[in-house]
Amino acid sequence: MEQRLSYSEVAPEGNEILRKLESYIRKAGLEPDLLELVRLRASQINGCAFCIDMHTKDARTHGESEQRLYGVSAWHEAPFYSERERAALAWTEAVTQIDKDHVPDEIYNQVRKYFTEKELVDLTLAVIAINSWNRLAISFRTPAGSYQPDHPASKKKSLK
Fold this sequence. Notes:
Layout: H1 7-10, H2 12-27, H3 32-46, H4 49-61, H5 66-71, H6 83-96, H7 98-101, H8 105-112, H9 117-139, H10 152-159
Helix pairs in contact: 2-9, 3-4, 3-6, 3-9, 6-8, 6-9
């Protein structure tokens, strides 16, 4: 597929708004590895190849295991996620697929066991953000595969 346009070049102000949201999310206090699982799961649901590539690479640079990355799409059956991660993944699926059941009380009650009110709002903002990025990347066909993490661990590996 050929890229239709570069949305960040065409609408830099709009792109900057999403970047500011990402900056808030990173500073909000949720675990970086949890956020990468959430971003990966939403991107899988939406079928965003660029974001799947990006967030698996980012997760690896933060030390995430291959097993857990491969298992995200089947997290319901996989034993290697914490209860907090399971709640976050269930919430991610419900918010991403909001048209199905409008985020059922059962899922809300489950996630509230593991997240404070502030954390839940921040988690929801993270889901909203990745869904926004997915929709931009898919709509304008951002090519997958070229993303390189901007993390010290990835730079060390590339220097060797």
